Amino acid sequence: MNVHSIITAAAAGLADTGGIHQVYLVACGGSLVDMYPAKYFLEAESTALHCAMITANEFVHAAPRRLGGNSLVIVCSHGGNTPESVAAAALAKRRGATTVTLTHNIEADLRQYADHNIVYAWGNDSSVADNPMAIILGLCVEILAQTEGYEHYAAFGQGLGQIDGVVSRARVKVAARCTAFAERYRHESLFYILSSGASYGHAYGFAICSLMEMQWLNAAPIHSGEYFHGPFEVTDRETPFILMVNEGRTRALDERARSFLRKYADKVEIIDARELDIGILPPSVVEYFNPILFYSVMCEYRAALADLRQHPLEKRRYMGQVEY
Hints:
The chain is of the alpha/beta class. Helices cover 44% and strands 15% of the residues. The longest helix has 33 residues, at 153-185.
């Protein structure tokens, strides 16, 4: 799998129609969460590309009018057979768009609607630089580099080479904290998850996937920048908050929330990317790697919580169990 060659081929295929004008990131649930850093990146760095991140069923029922021959549509489905995502890829093809699909399943239905397909590795032994979040981010870095140019392209490549080591060391560093977190919060039923920048998507993902889906716990994400515009009124000494503090341009938003929470809340878990040494990555690109670090670290938190609650992460009440 080579994201550079995939985007080179995709761009060449669109050359006669004027090239890539729109990038649509389409998926459901955790796969959609994996796309947020790429969306944030393109919105932050591009001057001409139109980028949208859309949940698959909405993409099918309310497709963007711009979708067509100048569109590159990236569709991700871990199992590769999510009906909404397969339908989205099929629609993109009917509208003349170029599709890049990602899945862990070599026999996925999604692949039949792919101009270019990536089968990614999955498991404890796989590199975090090869997980779908990093791959989709890498695809969008390539899109920008090949359409407009990207001055920090080499720095991004350096970051990809460093992030595995950062994550590996961070997992060791938080091991005892995860156990303490699980011990303290095993009987809680509601959590608020805060972050900003490229990591807000993972605040959303940890809420809807790790806590609501995998642990049947009530949870809600809050953007650190929005916390002081309504949500902070529910802050008290009894409600748990989890705050992921970014390294990079939006760190000030997270630090402001941290200061308030330390003053008015007692149940606060802070995961600070700087303290976990992500700062060794180039400053020009480090903010885009925060969510890759947070994803890996928060997997350790949720595993510890699931273990003490005796609620396996794979257990479901509705998903795959009933018709919906």
